[in-house]
Amino acid sequence: MFIVEVNMNLKRCILSAVLMLFVCTSPSYTQEPTPDFSDGKKWSAGLGFEYFKNTISWDEDSLISKLKTTLLTFHVGYEILDGLSLGGIFGYASSDFESLTFRELPISLTMDKGAIGGLLFGGEATFTFYETDSFDFSVLGQYIYYTGGEEQWNIPGLTVDGTATGKPKWSRATLGLSFRYLAAKPFLPYLNIAYSSLSGKFAMEESIQTLNRTEEKSISAVGNFLIGLGGAYDFSDAFSLLLEANITPYGRGDNYESGVDFGALLRLMYSF
Amino acid sequence: MKKKKLILLISIILFLSLTVSFNNAEQDRGTRRITDSIHRDIHVVKDNFRSRETQQRYASHEVLVKFKSSLSDNEVETLLDVYQSQKIQRIPKLNVYQIQIPEHTSVEEMVYVFDRNPDVEYAEPNFVAHITATPNDSLFSDQYALHNTGQEIGVPGSPSGTARADIKAPEGWEETKGTEETLIAIIDTGVDLLHPDLESKVVSGGRDFVNDDFDATDDHWHGTHIAGIAAAETNNNEGIAGVAWNCKILPVKVLDEDGDGYYSWIADGIIWAADNGADVINMSFGGEADADILRDALNYAKAAGVVLVASAGNDGDYVLYPAAYDEYCIAVAATDYNDERLDWSNPGPEVDVAAPGERIISCVPTWYWGQGSLPYGYAGGTSMAAPHIAGLAALIKDLKPWLRVDEIMDIIRYTAEDVNSGTSPGFDEFIGYGRINMDRALVPIKLTASSGK
């Protein structure tokens, strides 16, 4: 029995490793504050690209759909104390609320495909509280807020002209721990474990001649436990490149099965 | 140094293993719940038409993968071993493998992983197709108005219709079939209370203003026919299907055995229906005179939140009352099995929409044909068109009880199909905004990137 159990776990380990390898070599994904890698320099600035696909619930958790988001970000950070860095994030995000459905409007509408661009801003903090020659542990925190632009659609198939106007917004707060391996410099692999909460609203206004109503739908990610695996490569004293892939498992709900969401990010940082 | 790296690697693998085990346990619990629910569903026969929201979308532990043709069978087997997956079957002509995925992974995860493999052309979930909500009523295939397949309209040798020249009832039923809470008042010659397709749908004996009693039994045939179109018992293995599958009928008799009725009886009937819980009132009759008593009764019912539907008339002249009261009623014209307007359907600016009204099969009183004949028959007229709209109004009201009467009327108008756009594009006095479309009125309309401004 014990042997069978060990064998099963080994298989799971191999499968997990294979999956992570595939994920790491794929072009994009997710969401996670990055470890501090300013290496003694006070300021840092950089550009980032992030993609995540989160399973979101709505209508009081009875229905789910996918929120696919791409972020282009500019980061600026400052180390205010030894081991403690604070930073700001600004940028652009494009969110696709595929399958989000509005059934309280006079004529029901559902989002098929179509990303909505908007502004993004937020902040992040990193505090390294334990460090040896080989590894360090840090606490990471990040908050970002996305406010989408107003997107307008012609409602197809009606006998009169009608428009739908959507305006989304969401925010994401992440807090977690990072374990970084330092003995393989200039490559610094790390593992992040974090609690991540994404929630927001989507207001859809329908306007068809005399029919005018707005429905606001609250959304929230069903998965909150995020595991990220990544690495930073210091290819000079000033420049670092960071690549991370992460997963967010979620449990079964009343109307959906359990599953895993994916994400990835890429950052190029300059320290000075 | 090597030792440290080894410790790090083991830590990562152990951590991932734990998280995967956690996920696996969650899935096991999920599988048990699904199995339990399947066993329960087996005994609930009428639940086989579930709403679109609750239907299972794909097999929970399978994916379909098409490998590149350059891969040999052995190479495919090796690849599946790497993914700890097992072949269930191969569809040879498509070279698609139906694959059982490892228990501790999700379908989405494995589709993602397979899709990234350069030897794979595509990978996707094994989606589930569901029967559409086609009722099992024996005469449903004769109801071209609800679902037109191009069938013969009537007895063998009758003309055939044009496929999809119908109100798209099965598509609409995918979204809702209504509930018993919603009541359609049939203000007419009465309803056969013992008809096998209506007996369980009428909420009471109703009210008879012709004979001033509480037994609205039909002594003509017209009211029974109208009631059947709007809300006959559906999916009961016999007879016809009603537009408002699950909604109930409130019979009100205001027309006598010849099909005539005084405005006073009609006004009484409208007010009584509104006071007795009607959500929708169908009036498949008309008079030539404009009268305050009728207008006031309609005003009373509309203020009480009742949707009023009336037929335009069948003499090809002008819209009759109460349909001509534009502010209160949805005035209904008639089309045929080819989506063409019928010459005798009264035109006018008051016409809002149309529905099939030619050779419509529905219930007739059990005594009508005599013993040995089925109590169903064909009839035509805007009278038969109107209850299609009444049924749709009931389904909308049931689905969205927060909407105002005017909003429900506008939904029916704006979601219609402009079937005579070739000769009279846009709103016209023949069929108004067009023939109603239950799919558009009930099922969410997709907003695509291309419909963006």
This entry's quaternary arrangement is heterodimer
Low-confidence stretches of chain A: 1-38
Number of strands of chain A: 14
CATH A-level architecture of the largest domain in chain B: 3-Layer(aba) Sandwich
Order of helices and strands of chain B: HEHEEHEHEEHEHEHEEEEEHHHE
**The CATH class of chain A:** Mainly Beta
Largest interface: A-B, 64 and 69 residues
Number of strands of chain B: 14
Summarize the structure in words:
With 272 residues, chain A is mainly beta. Chain A has one domain (2-271): Porin (Beta Barrel). Chain A has one helix spanning 2-25; strands spanning 43-58, 63-81, 84-96, 101-102, 109-111, 115-131, 135-148, 151-154, 162-181, 187-208, 211-221, 225-234, 239-250, 259-271. In chain A, the strands form two sheets. In chain A, strands 1, 2, 3, 6, 7, 8, 9, 10, 11, 12, 13 and 14 form a twelve-stranded antiparallel β-sheet that branches. A two-stranded antiparallel ribbon of chain A has the order 4-5. In chain A, strand 10 and strand 11 (211-221) form a beta hairpin. Chain A starts with a helix and ends with a strand. Chain B has ten helices and 14 strands. Chain B is 30% helix and 17% strand. Residues 6-55 of chain B have low confidence and may be disordered. Chain B has two domains: 57-129, 2-Layer Sandwich (Alpha-Beta Plaits), CATH 3.30.70.80; 140-442, 3-Layer(aba) Sandwich (Rossmann fold). In chain B, the strands form three sheets. Chain B has a seven-stranded parallel β-sheet with strand order 6-7-5-8-9-10-11, sandwiched between helices.
